[in-house]
Amino acid sequence: MNAPVERSREDFLSLALSAPLAGLGVGLVGASFRRILEDANALRDALIVRMHGWSPGALVLLAALAAVATALAAWLVRRVAPSAAGSGIPRIEAVLSDQLPPAPPRVVPVKFLAGTLAIGSGLALGREGPSVQMGASIAYQTGRVLRRSWTDCRALLAAGAGAGFATAFNAPIAGAVFVLERLVRRFETRIAIAALAASAVAIWVGRAIAGRAADYAVGPLIEPGFVEVPLFVLLGAGAGLLGMLYDRALLGGLNVVKRFPALPVELRAASVGATVAVLAWFAPTLVGGGDALAQQALNGTGTLTGLPLVFLLRLALIVCSVAAGTPGGLLVPFLALGAEYGLWLGKICALALPAMAIQPQGFAVVGMAAMFTSVVRAPLTAIVLVTEMTADVTMLLPMIAACFAAMVVPTLCGEAPILDSLRERLLLQENGVAP
């Protein structure tokens, strides 16, 4: 047998065996992170309920606790691991395209602890960003320990990111699809196999720790007929416009922060944390990543006047949370926005077209996928992700129609995906150029 072919097969086999090992570590860390965040959110809600029975100064105490937690999160990032700031996904994309070196190992504990403090305090940030970056770092370090080449370490890094994504959403197939469609943007056999292996093992471990239930419960839905397709195309087009609003609001918030370079990041984070705590005192369901809001929308809860107000309030809260400079993702929060928007449009269509027996909850499901597509520009990931998170395939065809429109609108408008824009800002910062 030809020696180079023999060596190539040995390398391929080593990669195939290394990926499940990396997935084991990613699953343990990612599922533990998710479980701790769930406990932190429950503790925060229980504390607010109990503090309502205390003296009027209890609100001040709650705001102070949140301010200290978020300030500590920002301090940890600034002093120990600056690469742990923000979502982490744009940095992973930059590493995979050889624009930045991999983050040091200390990014994992800092991302875990600081993310728990920030998201647990109620900031409107998602668990998926930290999970993806921690997963990528764990898998990359696994490759280094096993003395794999940079090519294999790169494949493992991508696979670990996908495994982190899968664990965060309890969606194994979406994790692998996300790697190919978004992170590397092409099909690479080695990365595909590594991503599938790592995601599968990570999900098995994650479900053993965090449970097997789908993230969202959806009531019985009836598959819409062909006559309703234009409504879902309309939904997708609207999501495309709202996705552009989301992108520009986030970038605008970051630009505002850059105008005040003398303001310590700890003070900025503390002020955001205190503000979020005050909001949580009066409306606890409005803070946090948004899982509760998404579930409410999937249950059909909301009014025609209340849903737009919640959407705008949450958008402002997400912008402020991102500007705080703490670890946290962007994907979970806008899934909730998509569900709220979809439910609102579904209710309007149900009132305008009573003969069609429209189910607004189905529009909420499709709205999640459409908003993801508009912002991330990854329609296949969006469709698979929402299908896995809801454990329902009834709205699959409407999702395809909506994601088509959600992809077309921002593309025609020349709007770059938010992850691309954030990666460009990151590269400018790393090169010492103000974005």
Tell me about this structure.
By secondary structure, the chain is an all-alpha fold. It has two domains: 3-210, Clc chloride channel (Orthogonal Bundle); 226-430, Clc chloride channel (Orthogonal Bundle). Helices cover 74% and strands 0% of the residues. The radius of gyration is 21 Å and the shape is globular.
Task: Sum this structure up briefly.
This protein has 435 residues and is mainly α. Helices cover 74% and strands 0% of the residues. The chain folds into two domains: 3-210, Clc chloride channel; 226-430, Clc chloride channel (Orthogonal Bundle), CATH 1.10.3080.10.
Supply database-style keywords.
2 domains, Clc chloride channel, mainly alpha, 17 helices, 0% strand, single chain, 435 residues
Which helices and strands occur, and which strands form pairs?
Blueprint: H1 3-51, H2 58-79, H3 89-96, H4 107-120, H5 128-145, H6 150-169, H7 172-183, H8 189-210, H9 229-258, H10 265-282, H11 291-298, H12 306-323, H13 331-352, H14 360-376, H15 379-390, H16 396-412, H17 418-430
Question: How far apart are the first and last residues' alpha carbons, in Å?
Answer: 54 Å
Strand proportion, as a percent range, falls in under 5%
Q: What is the assigned CATH homologous superfamily of the largest domain?
A: Clc chloride channel
* CATH fold node name of the largest domain: Clc chloride channel
- Unreliable spans: none
